[in-house]
Amino acid sequence: MDAVWFVVLSALIFAIGAAGILTRRNPLVVLLCLELMLNAGILALVAFGRMHGSGDGAIFALMVMVVAACEVVVGLGLIVALYRRQVPIDVDQMAELRG
Amino acid sequence: MVFEGIVFFVAAALAVGGALGIVLLQNAFYSVLALVGHLVALATLFLLLESAFVAAAQVVVYAGAVMVLYVFVVAYIGGGAAQMAPATGAVARLGPLFALAIFVELSLAILGSSLAALRTEGPPLPGAGAFGGPAQIGELLLSKFLIPFEAASFLLLVAAVGAVILAGRRRGLEEATDSDSGPAERADKVRERADQPARAEAGA
């Protein structure tokens, strides 16, 4: 398969994730859409790594996976803390830290 | 070659379908399940790109561990409470247009480059399992990429400690917020109490 197909697919998944982040209000779903965008990046990295025939792309993809796991852990911890403080779970109403 | 094409298009359709499911489904629990399907389809695509180790890590780390974490948090917060009306306002209305613009722009950048004119399947591989397998990845991680490897382990440690501090039950927090509440905070509290029955209903 041509690497161009994989890169175009990754662009499509990235755009879908961006649309989700902008339109959804539940922070859990916003985190899921962030995962989508990171996965699109991983797919492009692996495709370019295969194209060049070196393993560097795969290493970079694994590093992105580690960063994504950290982001999920901290994000879910924040959501659980918000739920404990009985703040409404809605990104439009979480305005306390805004300006 | 034809077989590879069929596998690619089936996996790509599943990945895009899973992505659309995450964005469009109204229940957060179904969104998480759609992400699991999306991740498995992506692992198939990684196998097509001869990256067996990344595919295995994707299934074990993402579709296994991270998704279990998501399912636990959705179950804790309540899948019903996550059913909310779609966002209103300018950002929500312009969001899909913005995403479409990103896709068109990225596609123009990809197709406008000389990427398609090159022979981009990559060089022929030395042998089965030599590329993208655990042996190559492990050797690279412990020689060329040793410092990023150590940095990633430190980052994971920091994230784990941070999550425990964020989500851990702190003793004395409730008493502190009860005692030093000014009028504004008291008004907030009343509003929160008014919200609570609605949340209980949504969770049931």
Please describe what this structure looks like.
- The complex is a heterodimer of chains A (99) and B (204).
- With 99 residues, chain A is an all-alpha fold.
- Helices cover 77% and strands 0% of the residues of chain A.
- Chain A has 3 helices and no strands.
- In chain A, helix 1 (3-23) runs antiparallel to helix 2 and helix 2 packs antiparallel against helix 3.
- Chain A is elongated and about 50 Å long.
- With 204 residues, chain B is mainly α.
- Chain B has a single domain (2-85, 145-203), classed as Four Helix Bundle (Hemerythrin (Met), subunit A) (Up-down Bundle).
- In chain B, 75% of the residues lie in helices and 0% in strands.
- Chain B is built from 8 helices and no strands.
- Chain B has helices spanning 2-24, 28-48, 52-77, 90-112, 134-142, 146-167, 173-179, 183-203.
- In chain B, helix 1 packs antiparallel against helix 2 (28-48) and helix 2 packs antiparallel against helix 3 (52-77).
- The longest helix of chain B is centred in the N-terminal third of the chain and has 26 residues, at 52-77.
- Chain B is globular, with a radius of gyration of 24 Å.
- Chain B starts with a helix and ends with a helix.
- The model of chain B is unreliable at 178-183 (pLDDT under 50).
- Chains A and B meet through helix 1, helix 2 and helix 3 of A and helix 1, helix 2, helix 3, helix 4 and helix 5 of B.
